[in-house]
Amino acid sequence: MDLAAIQAALRAERLDGWLLYDFRGINPIANDVTGANRQGGHLATRRWYYLIPAAGEPRALVHAIESRTLAHLPGTARKYAGRLQLEQGLKDLLAGMQRIAMEYSPGCAIPYIARVDAGTIELVRAAGVDVRSSGDLVQRFSAVWNDDAIATHLAASDKLYRIKDRAFDAIARRTHNAGTTTEFEIQQLMAGWFRDEGLITDSDPNVSASANAGNPHYLPTREVSRLIGVNELVLLDLWGKLDRPGAVYADITWVGYSGREVPERFARAFTAIRDGRDAAIALVQRAARSGGVVRGFEVDRAASDVLKAADYGDQILHRTGHSLGESVHGNGVNMDDYETHDDRCLVPGTGFTIEPGVYFPDFGVRTEINMVMGVRDATVTGSLQTEILALAQ
Q1: Residue 178's pLDDT is what?
Q2: What average pLDDT does the segment 353-368 reach?
């Protein structure tokens, strides 16, 4: 935790402090910023508070039986036991504060930030303190990758692309001469390749054929899986990270066709999402190269405007992209003006996806790439799919 940088940011935003709070893991942002969830040797089942003031020494409020929860952090700590001690301790902790940041989003406009329960917000306000959103602070101090994290992302990305190629090869072989395979069989092959590559993930990959590709969150299982035959669209969505502390995710989606000639209806839809993706990439790169500012909702609009112009507006079911981090959906800005209005700025050192898609009852297409925002550029960290892959040659 870079205390000096956080305090400088608080002063720049005219905030008196940042109050980080957690109870049993409900606020992963607070745990990420403080590292409280990475401290072994003790339980963490009681409420804790850590106040970073705009100037001066941080101070904490922790339960007496869990007094070491924040001992690794700078500052002083006060202990409480009963609820009356908690309420008084919180008032004392906030003494001198008028305007603070917490993981709160007005109207829940950005639910990924809204990690503090309403009751706790009420307690803070009852102490005479105005609560503002910590969204921009989270973007800077929870979502930014260092060079080591970027290296893990690049390594994971390379591995995902290899697994994607192997999966499409397996589909081509198994469907050759009117043969078949299943979504689940291909998924399990990929899961084995994940292990071979040293990747870990929160879920096995998505393999979706034909109508199942029209469901963005479909996942095959042993019990629910479809045959893949010849002349069928197949969507692969795979995400993973290296099995080491501090590693961050890569996440890609590609589309193939188990035949020789991709039908025009599929090809036209893919052309639209490809052009939408490229428009979003271009917007981010222009901003980075010019030293300008670009916000998450603007990136979403760049892609969705292309889809709407191609008459696919009714087939949009999700935002254009999401933050990447140690979880596949990170704490940073999302490319979203559809599900939410994310007005946070993309800042150097953050990683995210660009993944426009359109979905129909009988098929769906999506293209997903990853980007890392630099100081004077923004980089796509893998190859770009330009058309649906015809798997039968």
Answers
A1: 81
A2: 98
